[in-house]
Input
Amino acid sequence: MTAVQTTPPPRLPVRSKAAARDRGWGGVSPMLTRLAAERATGVLVRERGSLHLAGGRVVHADSPSAPGLEVLLTAHGTVDAGVWRQALAETGDRHRAGHLLVDGGHLAAGALELCRLTALYDAAYFALAPSSTPGRFRYGTEAEADAGPGPACGCPMPVAALERETLRRRDLLHRIWPDPTTDEAPLTRAHRAAPPPPTSRQRAVLAVLAESAAVRTATDIARELGRPAFHTLVDIRRLAAAGAVRPRPPAPAETPEAPDVPDPLAAIPTDVTDPHITLLKRLRDALEAL
Amino acid sequence: MPGIDECLLEAMRLPGARGAALVDWTSGLALGAVGEAPGGDQEAAAVEAAELARLAAEQHAFAPDPGEEEGGGGGGGRGRGEGEGDAGHDVGDDPPVEDLIISNRDSYHVLRFVRTSFDSSVCLHLWLARAEGNLALARIRLGEMAGRLVLE
Output
């Protein structure tokens, strides 16, 4: 009897998560990690937002999905919209405008810092969302970077801290309700027989949905309420889990599909002679013969 | 007009203070932290403090909602939004809870909700050694600090 000696297959590679964490790389964006390591200055533009770096640290984040600092400050009248616009016109950038308002006694330093940090983490969450396109980095100058951080702020933010928080937030949403559809889809109220009583902030979300016939996504609602978008996502996922909110069903006009798509399997002859299958059959026969 | 760090450092000057943090209780993020972290891990401590604060702020037994009465009971979601109309936009208000106190065998935790004119969900978390700490003083001072942080 002959014994067939074969080399064992190599072990499948496993990415060591602990080691990745030590390097500050949580798998969010390898490019960002590299930029942080080389202390780059400039703007990283990703699919859903951008991060402004100075010396490898994040000084500002922007995303169309997140209401910015000015929305958080003006939506509830913390700062009068006119006063904000004037400060913005005088200084030319949001950061300096904020400090001007603090110096002028329109705004408490702590309030500005709180809103800035909240807006930064909020926009960064979306900017660092998984994307289908590669990010682009535009190197900038030190002068541009100077416009960013101020001494009184919790900025600049280390990249690793921002990535870790972004991963934690993804995990938080996933644990509330694992279906991410409601994060981006237009929403509608669902009428369940006996939903659990919503919290005051959840009621605000429901009220916006009830009021408007227009398409409402989580981002629209966050802007309307002057709240961070991530915080709105948390409430919406909780409402989705409770069955009080669901994605708006697509318009029926979109459903009919092109019927004349050829079946890809039809082209394959029934007696397949794929070399791999042939090999597997020979292997099976050899094993049975042992 | 203090920033976040100045506010936390001021809290650390209270007798017996071991650690202080400003925590966003929706996301569980520590927006600032000074001193020791309860349990040794700052991130975990912030998440747990946030969870506790959220429960207190949202449970109707602890935080009854002034706008609740007419809608209340098992009436469900229907009709609530329509009835409230525009009032819904002002509902991003703060919970009526002011602070939470946990007394341990050897320490106190005081969570003080920070009331802001913008929509936020933050609280100050102060950890005090029980032997040196003065709970009444800490509670009063934290309230003042929370006010000054956002109202100058």
Notes: Residues 47 and 131 of chain A are 6 Å apart (CA to CA). The longest strand of chain A covers residues 49-54. Residues 109-127 of chain A form the longest helix (19 residues).
